[in-house]
Every structure is written in structure tokens, then in C-alpha cells.
Amino acid sequence: TQQMAAAMADNPTKPLEYGEDNGLAPSAGATSEAPSRAALASALSEVNGSDKTGSRAPEGHNNTIDTLDRVRVDSSDQPMTTNQGVRISDNQNTLSAGVRGPALLEDFVLREKLTHFDHERIPERVVHARGSGAHGYFECTEAITDITSAAPFQEKGKITPLFVRFSTVAGERGSKDTARDVRGFAVKFYTDAGNWDLVGNNMPVFFIQDAMKFPDLVHAVKPEPHHQMPQAASAHDTFWDFVSLMPESTHMLMWQMSDRAIPRSFATMQGFGVHTFRFVNAEGQATLVKFHWLPVAGTHSLVWDEAVKISGADPDFNRRDLWERIDSGAYPQWDLAVQLFTEEQADAFSFDVLDSTKIIPEELVPLRTIGRMTLNRNPDNFFSETEQVAFCIANIIPGLDFTNDPLLAGRIHSYFDTQLLRLGGPNFHEIPINAPIVQVHNNQRDGFHRQAIFRGRVAYEPNSLAGGCPFQAGMQGFVSVAARNESREGTAKVRAKPEKFAEHYAQARLFLDSQTPAEQDHIAAAFRFELSKCTVPAVRERMVASLRNVSDDLARKVADGLGIKELPAPMPLATRQPPEPEVKRSKFLSLMARPGDGSIAGRKVAIVVGPGVDGAFARQMQQALLEGGAVGRFVGMHIGPVDAGDGSAIDADASTENSPGFLFDALVIPDGNDGLKRDGHLWEFVRDVYRHCKPIVAIGDAREFVTRVLPDGADTRKDKALILDERGSQGAIDQLIQCLGAPRDFSRESDPPRV
Ligand code: HDD
After folding, report:
1. Predicted-complex ipTM score
2. Mind listing the GO molecular function terms for this protein (predicted)?
């Protein structure tokens, strides 16, 4: 509870919501060194000056992040009121003419309540409908004033508040979290020079090169229009029909079929700005830049069988994980790194940096870390914050600029446009979660739901009646880079692309060849799964024909899985002389390349507690996990007290029925536990956790049970994540902690799974 309190010091009303000290607070998870919001607020006022008036803070500093406080509502100890603030005497009974008489039209309390309810829903996002948000801050760790005048990067130690929304793309608002899909990674920086939205994904490339194709892509992947199936899945004909006809999507398909499409946690995904942007310094000199978010916890994913099962048992798996990490103080963190390069370098690359289906291999342009993001506060209200937040790729600030990436161009239009419908008019920038921390000054007026009250009679410029205000900022304002002439072939109107855009396979190959053998197997299995759901043979064959341009080995594996005996001829190439790629294998593209800091923070372990369990060991294990920031949950045959072997009681807070084994990162079965071994759920626990290559600890008599349940041929001696030990041994706990913080070892896997 103390840890909870520390983690929640940022929100004084939270303990009340959970009922202070009444035991209803979510179970304490981790400790953290990240500052609480209170500490952050005081750090901000020291570092940034505590200017809450909304006027510009001193140069190089931020206002505080407390601007949302003016709209936060705490109803504890308050009487209920109408929206007009009139106290409501009775919230149960409609006003009627006599107890059995008709309802009266004058009942404004009833009518207001029903009318508001009737209008409660807004359209969901056309893509990325399902998302989870969190507040946090960015801390600059290296000032790069020589490269950009962008506010967050002007001073080492400078803090910029931000809001992040992670999302799946294809599924509807209520769909499952663990769909095989790209994840949105959208960050809104509330800088002291206005809002900057870095609206990226957890994959560094995209399916298409031109925004003209975006509606087609989305129509293809969304549920098919005649019967609205399947939900939150790309495994259907229309998606594969489209992408098999669009060879430019092949590189992205490699990423999407990899385990990156089923992240273990939002906190263990990389994020990417995808497009090439520009940094611009105070002298107006531009440097090309790509943005990367690197999770401090490392990159970790699920396996497909696990993702499928989780989607049934806990469709909110990633959302819950994010919420609990933050609530328990295991704050997710990412380093922000940039690839910086010049136009001349870009010209020499074998690919075009304006093509969003291409990465710049880190071997060509290394990453430079310039700051760290920490997410340390859950939203107070999902709708007000996570649903109403409106990201827009066009929201950039001085020190940044666009490039002529044709995908980016369409995005600059689309985001603002879509919010007009979704949020009902042009004033959505005034919704608190969207409002910048600097005061807005312009002559735009009116529109639905206007909040600001602009004073004076002048709403035009130039004017003399208001002393010329608000005035143009000139070079102090946002200035587009003048020399943005990337169209070297001239400026005559065309609908065409540069030659390098026509090469579609080299980087798909680069990605595939840079994976570990297990990851390559997962990619092949993902293609097999997805294409096996397509009912039209020609679609499956065309996709295999396209894969032949990436790797005959991959095409063969997929074809075998689809019963295609003879490989179709490779799809014709769009370019006769594809340029030779600079890098053919990269150290950085496998999920194993960035295992993280080995910390177990945010991980979840099932500690099985049946009658007769070795309670001392169970408690010791839980304590050790807690110290590392992980949660050890006691899982019994039912929730509530369980009689341990030593006569004490252990309180199980989960059951084998309500929390299946695949929801956990590891399974611990202490000695004792007699009754549980006759619970079929536990057999499935062991099999699933084993099959998904996660650690299992079995102590004393549990060893025999586990070895009996494991599939034939399971290696019980060399498998480091299978920890079988004597009762009373101390080593098992340390061994588990080491395995938990490391990437999974896939050597247990076989395809199909062993019996
Ligand atoms: Fe997009 C939402 C990311 C291409 C049009 N997109 C959306 C979100 C993310 C991305 C993270 C969710 C934002 C949130 O959480 O509210 N989109 C990307 C990336 C792309 C990309 C990384 C390629 C590099 N998007 C893209 C194109 C277009 C759009 C080419 C249209 C021309 N995207 C939209 C949208 C959405 C959106 C329709 C739906 C809801 C919203 O904007 O606010 O406008």
C-alpha cells in the first residue's frame, strides 16, 4: 500500500476512488525510481519556471503540466447536480402525475439525463480505433541546439510533458488487444513552443508509398463489407488480395508477420516516426532525421498461439498491462534516438529516403540518443483523455519540418480532417487533452463548442484598433525550410514516382535475413496461418509468387503449409536493374538485438497455491519478484484463503479458472499442492507455459508432476528455463529472475507442437 501510495502521489484523488486503505486498491506491483508526479511537478517548476498563466515561459523552459487540473473533477462529498449545477433530490423516480400516472414533460432532470445518454457515443477512429493512453514526460539527455531549435531538445535536463496513445490499427474500439497487427505509437509533446505530435507506429515502414492508396489499404484490411468479418484480423481474402497486388507492401508484410505484430507489452515495443523529417537549427540549416523510440525494458513479444489464447481470456491484455505498470510504479520508459543525415548522404543511398517502405539501416546511419520518455500517470477518464486526444502529423513546431514523402503529404491533410467529424467541429484543439500549454492567440472565431472567450472587437489582421495584435512572429515563428526542393526532375505536374521507389524486395530480404532462425520460422508460420484463411486459391498463389522475390526458402515453407506443390513463377519485378543494397544483414532488426536492461519490472508470475503448499517458499518467491518490480500472483483452485502446509493461510487472488497460465510470464509450482495436481487447468497451465517457451519453476514433488505433463522429448536437463529443484533450495528464485528478464529461448519449439 505504501508503494501504491508513492506511485499514486501524482493523483491525490486516486486513493479515494479505490477506497483508502480498504484493501480494494489493485495489488501492489513494483517499486520504481521514476519520480512521482508531485516530484515531477516540483522539478518542473524549478527547471522550467512555474508559469501557469499560459503566457510564454522564459526562453528554453516549459510551463508545468498542471494545466489539466483546472478541468479535473472530484465528486467525493459532493451532492449530485444537473448540468446546470442544480442539486438533484431524487435520482430514482421519474416525475409523474400520481404514482400510477403519466410521466410529466416538465421533468427536466429525467430529460437531461436521457438526452445526454442518447448522445454519449462519438464515431470511433476510422483506423486505430482501439487504443490505450498514458501521461508522461520527456527528458532531454543531450541538447542538440546545433541541429535543431525544437523546444524539447534545447537543454540537457529539460522536461516536456506528453501524452501517448498506443493502438491496434484494424480492430474496432472494443476489439482484442492481441490481434496480429501494427501498433500505433502516437506521442503528443506539449512543448513551450506549441504541440508537436510524433504519430508513429511500432514498425519503421509502411504498406504503401503514397497516401492515395491509404483508403484502399484500409478498406482491404478492415472486416469485409458484406458480412463485417473478420474483426481485428488481416487473415482474410481482401487484405491478401490487395497486398499481393501491391509489391511495395512486401517489406512491411515481413514486419507484420513477425512477432513484432504481437507485442508482450506496449512497454516492450520499439516506436518509429517512419517518415524522414527535418530538423532545422536557429540559422535555418536543415538536417534530415528519422525518429526511434527504444524501450528500456527491451523488445519482447508473444508467440502466436499465446496471443490467440490471450485474446479470449483477456482481450484487454496490453491495456491492462500498461495500466498496471503505471499504477504500480513500474513506469515504462523509452530512449528517443535519431538518425541524422544530409541530403548528399540520402542521394547516395540505394533507396529513396522519401519512400516510407524503406528503412535506413543503422549500419548506414547509427542511432544517437537524445532523451528519455517516461510514462508515469494513468488518465483519470478514458473518454476525456484517451478517446478525445487528437493527434495530427501536421502538428510540428519550429525546429522541425516535413519532407516531400508522398505518404506524409496525405497524412498532413487527413488527421485534421478526420477530427472534424470525430470530435464535431473545428474547436477540438480546445478539448483539454488537446490544448497546448501555451496560450493560443489568433483571429479564428466561433464554431461549435467554442471555449475561449476572446476579448475585444478585433478579429482581423492587419488592424490598428488592437494595436496590430496578435502580431506575426516573423522569424521567431514557424518558418518552412526554403530549400526543400527534393523534386530534382523538375516541377511539372506528374502522377509518378522516382525510379528508386520501384525496388520492393531488397529490404524485405534484409529484414528476413537479419532474424534469428526461430523468428524466421515464426514469420513463415504467420504467412501460412494468414494465407490459409484465404478462400481464393489465386490470392494465396499470388502471395507465394511475390514471396519468391524475397526468399525461395520462405516461399517454399509457406507453399508447403498451404498444400501448394509447385511453386508459382516469381512475380515480375517493377524495375529491371534493382540497385545493389548497401547492407544485406543487419545487427539491429531482430527482436533479440535489443533485449533490454534485464529488469523484470512489469512481469507477471503465477505462483500456484493448492492445499498443503510450501507457504514459506511461495511467499519468499513473491517477495523476491516484488523487489524486482514484478508481480507474483497466488493462483489457487479458487480465490480466497488456502491452507498452506505449515498451518498458515495464503490468500489466492486468482484462480486456475479465471487466470489461465498463458496470461503469465512464468509459472511457479512450489512443493506440496496436492489437490491442484488433479485440476486439469493446471495441466494446461504447464503445457501452455512450456509451449510458449516461458520459465517454469517446479519444486519438490512438483517436479514429477511437471515432467509427466510435458510433451514427449522435452529436454528437462539442458533447458535453462525449466527450473526443477529440491525443496529448500535457494537457487530457483535467482534462476527464475534471470530467465524472466531475458528474451525467451525458443529451442523448445517445434512445428507442429509436440504431443
Ligand atoms: Fe495514420 C490514425 C500512424 C499512415 C490517416 N495513424 C493514426 C494513429 C496512428 C497512425 C498512430 C492513431 C492516432 C491516435 O492514437 O489517435 N498512420 C500512422 C503511420 C502511418 C500512417 C505511422 C504511416 C507512416 N494514416 C496514414 C495515412 C493516412 C492516415 C497515409 C491517410 C492519408 N491515421 C489516419 C487517420 C487517423 C489515423 C484516418 C484515424 C484517426 C485519426 O487519424 O486521428 O486520419
Report:
1. 0.98
2. catalase activity; heme binding; metal ion binding
Q: Please enumerate in sequence order all residues whose Cβ is within 8 A of that of 509, keeping only pairs 6 or more positions apart, or say none.
A: 550, 551, 584
pLDDT category of residue 89 using cuts at 50, 70 and 90: very high
pLDDT of residue 678: 81
Cα–Cα–Cα angle for 229, 232, 233, rounded to 5 degrees: 75
Residue 66: predicted pLDDT: 61
**Closest Cα to atom 42 of ligand 1:** 415
Q: Does domain 32-70+127-439+500-597 have CATH number 3.40.50.11440?
A: no
CA dihedral 673, 675, 677, 683 (to 10 degrees): -110
Q: Which residues are catalytic?
A: 128, 201
pTM over 0.90: yes
Handedness of CA 705, 707, 710, 711 (dihedral sign): negative
Please report the atom of ligand 1 found closest to the CA of residue 413: 32
Ligand 1 near 133 CB (within 6 A): no
Q: Return residue ranges of the chain for CATH 3.40.50.880.
A: 604-748
479 pLDDT band (50/70/90 cuts)? very high
Start-end ranges of CATH 2.40.180.10 in the chain? 32-70+127-439+500-597
- The type of residue at 675 is G
pLDDT value at position 484? 59
248 CA from centroid of ligand 1 (Å): 19
Tell me which residue has its CA closest to atom 15 in ligand 1. 165
Domain 604-748 superfamily per CATH: Class I glutamine amidotransferase (GATase) domain (3.40.50.880)
Give 196-248 pLDDT, tens digit per residue: 999 999 999 999 999 999 999 999 999 999 999 999 999 999 999 999 999 99
CA distance 251 to 205: 8
- Do the Cβ atoms of 732 and 723 come closer than 8 Å? yes
Res. 134: pLDDT tops 60: yes
